[in-house]
Recover the amino acids of this structure.
């Protein structure tokens, strides 16, 4: 009998176990790739959104630092070894490690669309992790990051609306 992704068996297969260490490693890579992407992108974008791209790079650096600091804590060694269900959003989150090439003069709308999608993916993923991670500092960090990514997404959507639907005014 063939198993399909939407069946109970398919869903169970997708929700394999992973350790919090592996989750933290992927999340750290996610934040580093975003930081590097936005840092490289900043001088190429229009002046209208350059400040935003620079802010995104700085924010991703702060998230990267939070994950690094957490991974270094010796008091969390046991918790980091715990296995949890792999969130359904894991593959989409991991896919964000592969960055688009937006060229030497990227379009503001394209940059904002990419950033909104990335923030949405992070918001969903960190939210799912916050719900499945045992209570403690790691769970608290996932709650915090889900909230932060939600705020960033809303800010980006507001800017996108101003830029695209109102024709500028950024």
């Amino acid at each position: 009998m063939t198993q399909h992704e939407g069946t109970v068996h398919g869903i169970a297969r997708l929700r394999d176990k992973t350790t919090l260490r592996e989750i933290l490693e992927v999340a750290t890579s996610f934040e580093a790739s975003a930081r590097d992407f936005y840092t490289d992108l900043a001088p190429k974008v229009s002046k209208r959104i350059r400040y935003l791209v620079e802010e995104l790079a700085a924010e991703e650096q702060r998230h990267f630092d939070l994950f690094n600091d957490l991974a270094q804590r010796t008091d969390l060694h046991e918790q980091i070894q715990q296995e949890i269900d792999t969130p359904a959003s894991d593959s989409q989150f991991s896919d964000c490690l592969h960055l688009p090439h937006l060229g030497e003069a990227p379009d503001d709308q394209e940059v904002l669309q990419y950033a909104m999608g990335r923030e949405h993916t992070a918001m969903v993923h960190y939210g799912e992790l916050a719900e499945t991670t045992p209570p403690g500092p790691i769970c608290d960090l996932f709650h915090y990051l889900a909230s932060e990514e939600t705020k960033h997404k809303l800010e980006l959507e507001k800017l996108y609306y101003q830029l695209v639907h109102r024709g500028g005014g950024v």
User: Anything to note?
Assistant: The domain at 18-165 is CATH 1.20.1260.10 (Ferritin). The longest helix spans residues 137-165. The chain has one domain: 18-165.
